[in-house]
Design brief:
The complex is a heterodimer of chains A (269) and B (392).
Chain A (H helix, E strand, L loop, with lengths): L1 H14 L6 E12 L2 E13 L4 E5 L6 H8 L7 E6 L2 E2 L4 H7 E5 L10 H11 L4 H14 L15 H12 L6 E5 L7 H16 L3 E6 L2 H7 L2 E6 L2 E7 H8 L4 H11 L7
Parallel strand pairs in A: 3-8, 3-9, 6-7, 7-8
Antiparallel strand pairs in A: 1-2, 1-4, 4-5, 9-10
Helix pairs in contact in A: 4-5, 4-6, 6-7
Chain B lengths: L1 H16 L2 H35 L2 E6 L5 H7 L4 E5 L8 H5 L3 E9 L2 E7 L5 H27 L5 H4 L18 H26 L1 H6 L2 H5 L5 H36 L14 H28 L3 H21 L17 H11 L5 H27 L9
Parallel strand pairs in B: 1-2, 1-3
Antiparallel strand pairs in B: 3-4
Classes of the chains: A alpha/beta (269), B alpha/beta (392).
């Protein structure tokens, strides 16, 4: 079934003109654990196109964050290949980083710098000239509604303001691909709403967005396509609508558990 | 690479200087604490001595041979004399009071013995005992000169050697001994204390806040990130130790102008060249300590774990500082190759004008070499996936 879904997706991609910004091919990532080798990512393959939100769904420890870190060049695969804009994440890491924005809800900005100063800092880290960064700050401040607190100390900002600042610093270089690990994790309802709206906007702007989440409602709201990852393996990948029709349910949580059941359950033997 | 390191360095330093608490702890506190600490010690010591000198004591005499001794003592100590019987219960007063002292005389075969009963727990009682000892010495001289007179001799006739001592230390080194004892210890402690918190915050703290990953997904190399952080922590440690140094100099300048302080220092001994040499020495220590703190903080998964990693190094620095306080600088060149320890002795040598160019250069080379190795290990860690390991 996975194979069929994959083929259907390839047809769709070809229909869109065959543009693929992110491609993972048989990616494996192992870690050394106390009980031996842990296969954190076990032969994962998928692609993501411009203007698409792709969601990696799975329980904690399934391999979602590791997969996103692999795409973001933070980790190197043991085998397989990952390309972003055709650039290999291992061989051309700098080119990949130029085109990618890595965000995580775990990022807790702190300290005495203002969002503007942090954006200049991240602009410098991306080797963008200060004039361009200045213009980009103006754009992002208007877009994310940050003008009122752009020069306030981060330590004095609310959670929502900090989250906006985190997003702003991560996309200061205007990346075409956004990788967002657990975008709404630990956020209050208002901030979570703001974040989901921003992610939808990224899609409207034609960016490729890859998110990981264990919250099915987030995936239902945001994703065009989802990949279900269990124990490091991508066991299902399809458009949401296709999944709904295939499983005869519009509840992604039910579908997720049905797939998990079919794959031998969520609990390790 | 250096340009990228400076990006990290500048950002961290800017953040540090925008934090009033950090400025207070790094710069203002040592400037205030050092003079405050030493002035308090000096003031307390002199006021205790003054109080002890102004106290009226009760001195008991047992078997007093004559009235000459009480007369000598009265010129040195304010006291009311009283006579005691040789009864054990009479000595309870010495234990229970802080101003009662008993002197027991005995005469055996023309030889006089004097035993002083005092309470060592009481500073006043100790003071009285010391004054009585000096009065007894004077009394002994009086008895001796009386005896010599019967042989038509004086005390001077018995003095066959007229002893005097001449300090041949370079003029610029005289009066620097107390600074040579205190400065290396204080600098060492402050460098480690200053770099410890900042080093942990910029490494393990960054992991805890989840801000490390976004910094790694950028155009700067990870080696640049590691070196930028070391430069930053080193600068903070250097600022902290220079403030400590200035604070100590201020403290000793004030103490020197206080009468009977005993903690004075020859400030003019610190020539510009000596200050430059001290600055270079402090810089190498700060660099090494910072590199170690950044490495350990980067290895840690959390601030708590980082604290456990760096604490043994901090304690080691304290022990080294205390152990070397009273030690003279060894001339053995091998010591110049032992990081940190070489700097402690070099600081002593610089202050006391005993600096050796060879030992000084060996210290710089040794500290820089070890620092380079630690930075290399930190850069390797940043280039590996281990840097992402956190407690989350």
């Amino acid at each position: 079934m996975l194979k069929l879904a994959w083929e259907a997706y390839i047809v769709n991609i070809e229909h869109l003109g065959g543009i693929v910004l992110v491609r993972l091919k048989e990616v494996h990532k192992n870690f050394k654990g106390k009980k031996g080798i842990i296969k954190a990512v076990d032969g994962v393959s998928f692609e993501a196109a411009p203007g698409e939100i792709f969601g990696l769904l799975g329980p904690n420890g399934a391999g979602k964050t590791t997969t996103l870190r692999l795409i973001s060049t933070l980790l190197k695969p043991n085998s397989g290949e990952i390309t972003v804009f055709g650039f290999d994440t291992v061989k051309n890491a700098r080119e990949v980083r130029e085109r990618i924005g890595f965000l995580t809800s775990d990022m807790k900005l702190a300290g005495n710098l203002s969002p503007r100063e942090l954006m200049y800092f991240f602009g410098d880290l991306n080797h963008i000239d200060r004039k361009t960064v200045g213009k980009r700050i103006d754009t992002l401040a208007s877009y994310l509604d940050m003008n009122d607190f752009l020069d306030e100390r981060i330590s004095k900002l609310s959670t929502g303001m900090k989250q906006k600042a985190s997003i702003a610093v991560s996309i200061i270089h205007d990346p075409q691909v956004i990788v967002f690990d657990e975008p709404t994790n630990g956020l209050d309802i208002i901030t979570a709403r703001t974040v989901t709206e921003i992610i939808k906007d990224f899609k409207e702007q034609g960016k490729t967005v890859i998110i990981s989440t264990h919250v099915m409602s987030v995936a239902e709201k945001l994703c065009d396509r989802v990949g279900i990852i269990l124990k490091g393996k991508l066991v299902e990948i399809d458009y949401l609508k296709s999944l709904y029709s295939e499983y005869g349910s519009e509840d992604l949580e039910d579908i997720f558990f049905a797939i998990a059941e079919k794959e031998g359950g969520l609990v390790d033997a | 690479m250096l340009k990228d390191s400076i990006i990290i360095f500048k950002k961290e330093l800017k953040s540090l200087f925008k934090d009033r608490r950090s400025i207070f702890f790094l710069i203002i506190l040592p400037l205030v604490l050092m003079p405050g600490l030493f002035l308090t010690i000096g003031y307390t010591a002199s006021s205790q001595e003054k109080k002890a000198a102004e106290t009226v004591y009760r001195v008991g005499f047992i078997n007093l041979p004559d009235e000459k001794f009480p007369e000598i003592l009265s010129k040195r100590l304010l006291y009311e004399g009283f006579y005691k019987s040789f009864n054990a219960s009479d000595f309870n007063e010495v234990t229970s009071s802080d101003r009662t002292v008993i002197v027991e005389f005995n005469k055996n075969d023309e030889k006089l013995t004097a035993k002083i009963y005092y309470n060592s727990v009481s500073n006043k009682s100790k003071y009285a005992m010391q004054v009585i000892v000096s009065a007894l010495n004077a009394y002994e001289k009086l008895l001796l000169s009386d005896k010599l007179r019967s042989y038509s001799l004086t005390l001077d006739d018995l003095r066959l050697i007229d002893i005097s001592s001449v300090d041949m230390a370079p003029k610029e080194a005289q009066g620097t001994d107390f600074l040579a004892v205190m400065l290396p210890y204080m600098i060492l402690i402050y460098i480690f204390a200053g770099s410890m918190n900042i080093g942990l915050d910029t490494t393990a703290g960054e992991k805890e806040r989840g801000t490390l990953s976004p910094i790694l997904v950028n155009q700067v190399s990870r080696t640049s990130i590691a070196t930028g952080k070391v430069f930053y922590v080193m600068t903070a440690g250097l600022i902290n130790s220079v403030s400590t140094f200035i604070g100590l100099v201020i403290a000793f300048s004030i103490l020197g102008s206080m009468p009977n302080s005993g903690l004075s220092m020859n400030i003019s001994a610190l020539t510009p060249l000596k200050l430059l040499c001290l600055l270079i020495t402090i810089l190498t220590v700060a660099g090494l300590a910072s590199a170690v703190m950044v490495l350990l903080g980067s290895l840690a998964k959390s601030m708590k774990e980082g604290g456990a990693y760096v604490m043994p190094f901090y304690i080691g620095a304290v022990i080294m500082g205390v152990a070397t306080m009273q030690m003279d600088s060894p001339k053995n060149l091998i010591v110049s190759l032992i990081p940190i320890l070489n700097s402690v002795f070099n600081m002593k040598d610089i202050i006391t004008s005993q600096i050796s160019t060879l030992r000084f250069l060996l210290m710089i080379l040794s500290n820089l070499a070890v620092m380079a190795i630690v930075i290399f290990l930190t850069a390797r860690l940043y280039n590996s996936e281990k840097i992402l390991e956190s407690s989350e």
